[in-house]
Structures are given as C-alpha cells and as structure tokens.
Amino acid sequence: MLICMVLCIIIASICGRPFALKIVALILSFFMFLPTLICSLFLMFPFSENTVVKELPSPDSTYYVQVISSDQGALGGDTLVCVYEEGLDLFIISITKKPEIIYRGDFSESRYMDIYWKNDNCIVINSVEHEIRTTPFGSGPNF
Prior knowledge:
Blueprint: H1 2-15, H2 19-44, E1 49-57, E2 63-71, E3 77-85, E4 88-89, E5 94-95, E6 100-106, E7 115-119, E8 122-125, E9 128-131, E10 133-134, E11 141-142
Antiparallel strand pairs: 1-2, 2-3, 3-6, 4-5, 7-8, 8-9, 10-11
Helix pairs in contact: 1-2
C-alpha cells in the first residue's frame, strides 16, 4: 500500500499536465497514507496485555494450568484458564504443544477464582470439574 502511494505521487508529479491534477493526486495519496499509518500502528503496538496470575502444576507434573488475566483496554477483558502439557526441553529450545483453553470468564474474575487439582487428570474451577483426557498418539489434552 505504501509503495503504491509513493508511485502515485511520483507519477502524478511527473505526468500530470494541469497543476490542479497534481494537487488532487497529492491529496488523494495523503488520504491513502493516513489509514495505512493508523493500521500499522495497531499492528506494531498491540493495545491488549495478558498477565499470568496463577500457575498450578498437576500432582504428577504432566500438565500445568495458567490463569491469565487479559486486559483489552476500553474493550474490557476476560479471564482465561489454559492447560499446558509439559514439553521436551533441549539445550537451546523447548518443544511444547499448543495450550487448550478450558475456561473463559469475566475480566478480573481471577481475583476470586477458586481453582485446584482434584487428581492428575481433573481440575476444579469454581466448583466445576474439568476432566483432561489425552487423545491417541499423544496429541495433547482433550476436554
């Protein structure tokens, strides 16, 4: 988009015979540049912030749970509970599977959330049990 805008300015300034056409092309190019600038700012500087409030390992340390408070500014936010399966740690890199979101609640709910492991494959969140079943071929937790 930026390259297209620059090329339009160059072509308009070189090839545009009437001076008024040059002015119109420059104004239109500026209005093309403005949305591009605003969109790139949103991509470069995200306006949400995720904070890990709690982290609980399972009794056998196969899984661990993170309670995440997601602040999205004026949009509000939410509370997430994600289950991670312990990965493989090598010297330089660690290989982990994608986390599963098992609970999504209101913003700031993490302050008064009651969460604990009942056993190796069951976690209790606000008095509701969530079973963790592994899928065939070790492809991660399944809820």
